Amino acid sequence: MHHKHPPLARPALGQYARTELAFVGSTCARMEAVMRDWMQQLGDYRTLLVTGEHTAPEVATSIRSDRKHFTSSHASWNAFDDRLLGGQYDLALVNGNHYPAARQIVFVDEAKAGTLVRRKDQLSDVLAVVLVDTETVPDWLQQHVEAQESAPAVLPFSAVDTLLPKLLELLQAATPPLRALILAGGKSERMGADKSRLVYRDGQTEVERLRDLCRSLELPVHLSVRDATFAANVADLPLVADRFLGLGPAGAIASAFLSAPDAAWLVLACDLPLLDEATLRTLLTARRPDRLATAVRGPGKPWPEPLVAIYEPRAYQRLLQFLSLGYACPRKLLINSDVAVVDLPDGRPLTNANTPEERERVLGQIGVAPHGR
Fold first, then answer.
1. Is there a binding annotation on residue 290?
2. In the chain, how many H helices and how many E strands?
3. For the ranges 61-65, 129-133, 203-207, 236-240, which has the lowest average pLDDT?
4. Is 338 annotated as a binding residue?
5. 269 annotated ligand binder
6. pLDDT tens per residue, range 180-192
7. What topology does CATH give the domain 178-365?
8. 19-173, which class in CATH?
9. Domain ranges, ordered by start, for the chain
């Protein structure tokens, strides 16, 4: 079938984020008070509040970052901007009296009964019905939610916080699955031989060794290559071809997200012959899905190692933004983003072998005679 535009995998977003809830049917003051309280209680998750203004704003665009306040007379915003913003968050709590969201918490409040009826078509997946000033669910609403696969909880407003465990379940279920990406697309110019095929121990190439390490951690493994058509897949792994040519590891990481935008990627260079399972387990245990990435850092090193790191889906958009500014260094991305850094007590697992001389030194450390295989 002919496609006018290349088909791309799209992330599983709602109107805003992967998990989102519209609060609809009561006063804005009441619902937004609950939304703000929940945002505080869900401090381990990045939460976006989406509310509306009842009067025209003084300026077209206003953004605050800490003490810095940006204002502009120019405004151009649409649903795609909503998703670009919301995709950076784990959860969006939305004032549903103003804007829709994929799931809803419905408030039955006599003072806003008309508002709720007008939003009937937006009640697509009601998580709960909260009774503000009544003990019964309106007949029309009861009939509406009976068509759902699962019946919503019904509770008084005084018990609204009992919905938090259910929301936590939704957030945990939405944690991006983790995959491993072994980078084997480099030209290995300094080494003079393909680093991914070098053997340091046990007759295994480095790609095969890393593959087995990742499989021991029960991770699906993919191999990043320059061109899947011509790559020799010696490790029998699914290939991720580079679709951002000439950009090095940044292009490989972006290509992985292009193929699977809802996955998090454990990115591993193939020139770390001392990298071991214990180091990877330490990294996986310390993973922070609420951050852009989780990376390790050797003792005494000022910066994290970008090629022994877990990149969350939200890293994709920021990586592309850095590329648009002319920066293709993954380390610069990590240094200038909200990431978790794991300090290792031993830096040897992060030893690079990029040249024949470095390879000889590594072979000596693992007890192999020089020029050994």
1. no
2. 11, 17
3. 61-65
4. no
5. no
6. 999 987 666 666 6
7. Spore Coat Polysaccharide Biosynthesis Protein SpsA; Chain A (3.90.550)
8. alpha beta
9. 19-173, 178-365
